[in-house]
Amino acid sequence: MATRPTATRKTAKGEYIETDSGNKVSRKANISGTPNITLGGKTVIMADVHLRGDLTRPKAATPDPKGAKQSSTSISIGRCTVVSTGTVIRPPGRMSRGVYTYYPMKIGDNVFVGPNCVIQAASISSHVHISENCVLQPLCVIKENVKILPHTVVPANMVVPPNSVVGGRPGRIVGEVGEGYGVSVGAVAGGSGEGWVEGGDLRELVRIIK
Amino acid sequence: MSQQFPYTYYSCSCVDTPTSLLPLSRKSVEARSSSDEEETTFDPRSSRANFSLYPLEHLLYCTECHQMRCSRCTTEEVLCWYCPSCLFEVPSSTVRSEGNRCTRSCYNCPICTSFLTVNLLDAPTEAQRDAEQPPGPFILSCSYCNWTSLDIGIKFDKANNITGQLQRVRNGGIIVPTPKERENQAERLLRKQPNHEEEEEVKSPLEETPAAQAPPDADDFFSNLNSFYKSQLADTETSAGPAEFNVHSPSSIQRLLNLYSTGKKTKRGKPKPMRESLTTAEGLQEYSSSSEEELIHRLATSGWEATTSPSQRSFQERHPPRFTSDLRPTATLLRTKRSKRCKTCRTLLSRPEPKVNTTRYKIKVLALNNIPKVSIRSLNTTPQSLLTDLVTISSSMQQKEYTTLHPLMPYQFLLTLTNPLFDPIKVTLATPTTTPGRVQTRVTILCPQFDVGANTDVWDDALNSTSSQNNPKRKSAAPGLSVASPPDNSDGKQAEAGKIWDKGRNWTSVIVEVVPGVLPGTPAFVGEGGEVREDEGVVECPVFVKVEYESEGLGAGETPERVRMVGEGKEKREVAFWCVLGVGKIVG
Ligand SMILES: [Zn+2]
Ligand SMILES: [Zn+2]
Ligand SMILES: [Zn+2]
Ligand SMILES: [Zn+2]
């Protein structure tokens, strides 16, 4: 936030390296293939998180300028997304025409990924809350406003429709999030004691991480 | 997985808890008579409580009745049907004719319920790899438990229209007519013999198919019985008789058939008693000792592994089988988007946009925006420790603040009320001195009456905070959120009776003192001992919240005793509800 320049300077010396766009990346995070990763701004990558940007689509034998451009990004994460400690983010792969191929992964805005998860989803839309110790198997698709309960294993290729709650091993749709999911009282600074809610705007959470 | 502490559940007003419905066992009556004087104390442990407690984000609010509304006191209307797998919307006419399952190629694993994918059976050769449509055969396979349709002997020629292909193949790859074909055949037979006196001549549609050699399965019996009853009804159509209402009467069978047929309305049959089916071709399922013996033999040889679990049986579309080899992949159940109305006054409370992929609402009246939010947390937790709990690996360490409450030790919790309204509110809290039940936890709210400021515009707040930035005593935007200022309790602040702890723009915090009770079975326990029942160690404090405020008059539908004019177009309003604070768990 523009009104807190002091806080920004402080974090520069702390655990997090803050980029120009406000991303906070822990010095203890494990990042491979940095050129293939994009962070949308105000996004937090915590300690012991492993981003596998090195797992990219193999370079096409036939020169295809469009394809080459697409394959350059393997992990793209949106704005105000928080990836908690110990989580591994790995682009999904599968056999395609006889070759094991990695597909780029897209994570939206205001997504919370809890500690100790393994994420291999094809895409995670915005306002998704993933609790701790979850496994998202290759090529699953998580739509908007979804809550994933702790210790869930979302099976490969599963599509989780918007507004659902997923739990269990294998993960099933166990319910719907309430109409008030992600709505905080009084927008930025609700008196909830946290200033942010699951599935809501995570700016406040990002701000207090340092 | 246990509940995460702390939590607040709101009791919806639709559930009255009259004393007669509280548990009336002798023990609880004793406990109650010694503790609460008020008869209407909400008991979070009563079996009715389960049905009225909701997290705030699940509650709606009726602006006509001025009451919160839960799933019990709202009515729902389906706006659209869609498949959760392929996210295609299904028109309601299709739902009526085809049923509530996806008719594309969406199937769930009969073993583990995961989504099944259509895969090539054999790895494609170099030449096939580049072909637009690789040749079959294809199989359905589950990447979670490695079940494939080969386990029940089914392969597919095409990768699309799995539903159509599955309809004509029985487990083991036996080709059978589809339900539609069977029906048509049965009807053709009926038309051929409009007055068939000789029942023996009625041929089962099954006998004309290659599947005739295989023993008939439940689907065959159904279609045979279906066509038999239809022929019987056709017979009785012409003759008239008195109405009868037993099982064998044509009218009741007609009703039954209409239940199973899809949309086709036939004229109500003239009542005349009919005979029942007599042969297998007519759908009679005969008992045979040999098939029983075969079953027992199968159980003995294939063992436990080959039998289905109750959940697998209930997950089947129909005909729950005994053996896993008889399971069928299940078509994905459709889901719905629904609008909700108040049951009392029919006001629309929520209406999502009927598109599958959007999460927007046309109308959404949330309790969240109309009644104060009650939240509780341990006084010892700082925002930083809350954060660490949330994002670090040590999930076993998480929650320790709440899950290790010792009996008879005082604990202080911070109770915060946040006001979503644009008017300041006056709050009165009440709680029974001890919690209901055998484990009597003492609960004291140090300051039960206080004011909470109005919820001003966010930008006002932002501007205020900028101008007062140099003021060290400036009120933080959210309780405990001001990381720049020292944590709440580091300056040696002491809890004082009758005084609020802290307040901000639209929130006020007070201290709640909790002295956990003694668990049964421990030496200090007074009263009838015995085992600790499930969740008896969980401390849940019922709290009654009364909110009073003056608001711009909205008029319509007001109940006179609740609203009284205060002049200047302002109305005095009162909202009251019970909520339950889950503060933690007692260790023995
Ligand atoms: Zn209700
Ligand atoms: Zn589908
Ligand atoms: Zn499976
Ligand atoms: Zn109403």
TrEMBL record, chain A:
Q: What SUPFAM superfamilies does this protein's entry cite?
A: Trimeric LpxA-like enzymes (SSF51161)
Report whether Cytoplasm shows up as a keyword of the record: yes
Record-given protein name: Dynactin subunit 5
Family the entry assigns: Belongs to the dynactin subunits 5/6 family. Dynactin subunit 5 subfamily.
Give the domain of life.
Eukaryota
Q: Where in the cell is it found?
A: Cytoplasm, Cytoskeleton
User: Would you tell me the Gene Ontology cellular component terms?
Assistant: dynactin complex
Please indicate if the UniProt record lists ATP-binding as a keyword. Answer: no
Chain residue ranges for the region called Disordered: 1-21
**What UniProt keywords apply to this chain's record, in alphabetical order?**
Cytoplasm, Cytoskeleton
Query: Which organism is the protein's source?
Result: Tothia fuscella
From TrEMBL, chain B:
What protein does this entry describe?
Answer: Dynactin subunit 4
Kindly state one GO CC term assigned in the UniProt record: dynactin complex
Q: Where is the composition biased (Basic and acidic residues)?
A: 179-206
Q: How does it associate, per the subunit comment?
A: Subunit of dynactin, a multiprotein complex part of a tripartite complex with dynein and a adapter, such as BICDL1, BICD2 or HOOK3. The dynactin complex is built around ACTR1A/ACTB filament and consists of an actin-related filament composed of a shoulder domain, a pointed end and a barbed end. Its length is defined by its flexible shoulder domain. The soulder is composed of 2 DCTN1 subunits, 4 DCTN2 and 2 DCTN3. The 4 DCNT2 (via N-terminus) bind the ACTR1A filament and act as molecular rulers to determine the length. The pointed end is important for binding dynein-dynactin cargo adapters.
Compositionally biased intervals (Low complexity): 207-216
- At the top level, the lineage of the source is Eukaryota
Say where the protein is mainly found: cytoplasm
Q: Where is this region: Disordered?
A: 179-220, 264-290, 306-326, 461-496
Q: Which lineage? A: Eukaryota, Fungi, Dikarya, Ascomycota, Pezizomycotina
Q: Kindly indicate whether the keyword Coiled coil belongs to this entry.
A: yes
Keyword presence, Cytoplasm: yes
Q: Which UniProt keywords apply?
A: Acetylation, Coiled coil, Cytoplasm, Cytoskeleton, Isopeptide bond, Phosphoprotein, Ubl conjugation
**Where in or outside the cell?**
Cytoplasm, Cytoskeleton, Microtubule organizing center, Centrosome; Cytoplasm, Cytoskeleton, Stress fiber; Cytoplasm, Myofibril
What's the family?
Belongs to the dynactin subunit 4 family.
Organism of provenance: Tothia fuscella
